[in-house]
Amino acid sequence: MDKPGSQCDLLVSYNIGHDNPVTVSHIILTKRVLSILPCFFEGQIYVDDIIFASTNPESCTEFEQIMKSRFQMSMMGELTFFLGLQVRQTPQGIFINQSKYTLDILKRFDFTGPKSASTPMSTSFQLDADASGNPVDQKVYRAIIGSLLYLTASRPDIMFATCVCARFQCDPRESHLGAVKRILKYLKGTPNFGLWYPKDSGFELTAFTDSDHAGCKLNRKSTSGACQFLGDKLVSWSSRKQNCVSLSTAEAEYVAAACCCSQVLWMKIQLADYGYTMHRIPIYYDSSSAIQIAANPVQHSRTKHIDIRYHFIKDHVEKGNVELFFVESERQIGDLFTKAFDEKRHYSLLSKLGMLDPPADF
């Protein structure tokens, strides 16, 4: 049996052998053929599984023949299922979800009953260490968290709730398990939810970022949330606790914007491989004070203490790589990754992300 590394070497050779610009990472290879019309080929390797795509069907056929001549392998045809992701391709666009995996989780942890929840997390309850609470089975708690984290690959709606619950894996209590069970109840009512990527929509890179100042009750650190779009298509999202304690809301927003900027710059590089050069990528957040900090090249007494690693956003604002814009809180999509909301606001944000529950005949 050939090693995955051999497949990777051949995939590199396939790209380089065509004397075309090629970008090689550990698992992603991209080729751009410069002819009358640009043609793109991309292959991704996951151990011994390979998925590939091209804007020219002939490139896919050629690559298939080369791989079959070198390796003993089978072709599965058009991508419909991969690593737990279900992919539905239609003339109007692509729909991605993990409904089968969701149902497997509910069955595994015995959540197949009739009860469900309208949102993944309550707005009136905040988790803390709960030192006086009754401890629960750590292995079971971690197993549920691990399953939910994998599900966030297509379910940004549970990202924040799952990440908050994941903070208590070392010493979970009944209150923490109760919060996790609510996520499962929410999934019980929304097993088919997924992301819709319409065809022929815009391709402009935009980002939204937000923070929840001192939201963590354990150490008063803030939570950063961000999401990035290509046109109206959600392509990246995150929710994570900041590494520092912010002294103000503006500082927390500034730190969140710096983290979002890092992701945007990485995406800018990736898009350049496809021939898309982007400048002044807009980043939207709802703190005019944080925007002023990023736009001011001079440090003053209220910002000198901020770690230098977050100030790199100033440099990229000056160079024109990114541009910061104020957005009203009601239109801040990044809110979904920093806090819990009531049902109306929750589903309003989901619609802006492009999440939907497909019809039965989809």
Structural class: alpha+beta
- Biggest beta-sheet profile: 5 strands, antiparallel
- In CATH, the architecture of the largest domain is 2-Layer Sandwich
Tally of structural domains: 3
Distance between the termini: 40 Å
Task: Explain what the structure shows.
With 362 residues, the chain is of the alpha+beta class. The chain has 3 domains: 4-77, Double Stranded RNA Binding Domain (2-Layer Sandwich), CATH 3.30.160; 97-192, no CATH class; 201-327, 2-Layer Sandwich (Nucleotidyltransferase, domain 5). Helix content is 35%, strand content 22%. It is built from 10 helices and 14 strands. The chain has helices at residues 4-16, 57-70, 99-108, 138-151, 159-166, 174-189, 249-272, 288-295, 312-319, 343-353, and strands spanning 22-24, 28-33, 39-46, 49-54, 81-82, 85-90, 93-97, 194-198, 205-212, 223-230, 233-241, 281-285, 322-326, 355-356. A hairpin with a 2-residue loop joins β3 (39-46) and β4. α4 packs antiparallel against α5 and α7 crosses α8. The longest helix has 24 residues, at 249-272. The two termini are 40 Å apart. Residues 16-22 and 33-37 have low confidence and may be disordered. This is Reverse transcriptase Ty1/copia-type domain-containing protein. Pfam families: RVT_2 (PF07727). Residues 45-122 form the Reverse transcriptase Ty1/copia-type domain.
